[in-house]
Amino acid sequence: MGARQAGRVVVVVVAALLLTASRCGDGDDGSSAKGSGNGGASGGSSTGGGNSPSKPVKSPGSSPDTSPGKSPGPVNSPDGSPEDSGAFTGTVVTRSVNPPYMTDGAYRATCSALDIQLTFQAQGAYGATAKWRVLVLDYEPSNTRPVKEGNAARGVSVRPAAGTLDVGSRTTINVSGKYTSVVSPSDFWVVVEAPVKSGNFTPTPFRCVS
Predict the structure, then answer these.
(1) SS3 18
(2) Of 122, 132, 143, 149, nearest to 195 (Cα)?
(3) 48, 121, 163, 164: which sits with the fewest CB atoms below 10 Å from its CB?
């Protein structure tokens, strides 16, 4: 083989080696690109998982829970206190008497045929209720002489004789019958008491006239 042919062979071999090296380099770059792409997709997936919505957290000023099974708190009256549960703490006063005629500080009554109307009104704290009863007595009750049911004025009836009233409400009762007394002047007292058997009462005096 001559020197010129040997030189050609060397050139061809070197060119082949350079071509092979070039192809190997291109393969490595493609693999790296593919790896980088896969890495980017993986990174995106991780980021997406980290942005998943979290459960809401209640702030200190949030509204109370109203889910079923939880009862609401007590309802307050306008003054801020819990509403009265219905205890009979109210009292009752006499507002009017009919007929309204009086003599010597007592209402005049035709005792042979009584027909008298008294109107009562309940008083007390907000939301309270008065439980009352009416007795017709043949004496005037006082702090030293309490109400006694046995001293009823005989022959006199009252309708209604008892009941309940919300504070501010009114009711009218009717006194009827016939009253006879062995003493003179012939007096009797219509007594409204509330609460019942509490000793808190209001007597209204009547005197028999012919």
Answers:
(1) helix
(2) 132
(3) 48
Answer yes or no: are the C-beta atoms of 201 and 192 closer than 8 Å: yes
Residue 120 DSSP SS3: strand
Is the pLDDT at 155 greater than 60, yes or no? yes
Q: Output the pLDDT for position 176.
A: 97
Cα–Cα distance, 187 to 207 (Å, whole number): 4
Enumerate residues 6+ apart whose C-beta is below 8 A from 87: 128, 129
Reported as a single tens digit per residue, the pLDDT across 105-123 is 999 999 999 999 999 999 9
Rounded alpha-carbon distances, angstroms, from residue 124 to 44, 74, 87 = 74, 21, 11
Cα 96 from Cα 99, distance rounded (Å): 9
Q: What is the DSSP secondary structure assignment for residue 86, as one 8-state letter?
A: S
Question: Which phi and psi (to 5°) does residue 141 adopt?
Answer: -75, 155
Structure tokens at 47: 């980021």
| Strand ranges across the sheet with 129-137 | 102-103, 106-109, 201-208, 187-193, 129-137, 162-166
* pTM: predicted TM-score of the whole model, two decimal places: 0.57
CATH topology of domain 91-208: Immunoglobulin-like (2.60.40)
